[in-house]
Specification:
About 10% of the residues lie in helices and about 40% in strands. The protein is mainly beta. The protein has one domain: Sandwich (Immunoglobulin-like), CATH 2.60.40.
Length: about 100
């Protein structure tokens, strides 16, 4: 993680710039992590409830950071969704419900 991103996370990015909005449309509670370009995963949000939005301001304002956001089912830790790479601020990431399995034929 870059020094700027670490400083921003530690300082809670108290600037007035737009944030990343996470919309949880999945049916499960999720945790949100950031996975950098080296594959290192850092926790960002402990819980985003189904149907709710959560704002994250832990990235440099109006810039893109190489890596992606990862949503995991809070109960099982299974991967639910990945954001586009890179993570840009401001943006909106919608975590969609899992697709239903195909019907048997």
């Amino acid at each position: 993680m870059s020094a700027l991103l670490v400083a921003c996370v530690l300082a809670a990015c108290s600037d007035n710039h737009p944030v990343i909005t996470i919309r949880n449309r999945a049916a499960v509670r999720v945790t949100i992590s950031f996975v950098n370009s080296l594959g290192n995963e850092s926790s960002l949000v402990d819980t985003v409830e189904p149907g709710l939005d959560y704002s994250v301001d832990a990235f440099p304002a109006t810039q893109c950071t190489p890596g992606f956001l990862l949503a995991r089912d809070k109960a099982t830790r299974a991967e639910v969704a990945r954001s586009p790479n890179p993570v840009c601020r401001p943006s909106v990431w919608v975590i969609e419900p899992a697709a239903a399995p195909p019907a048997p034929t």
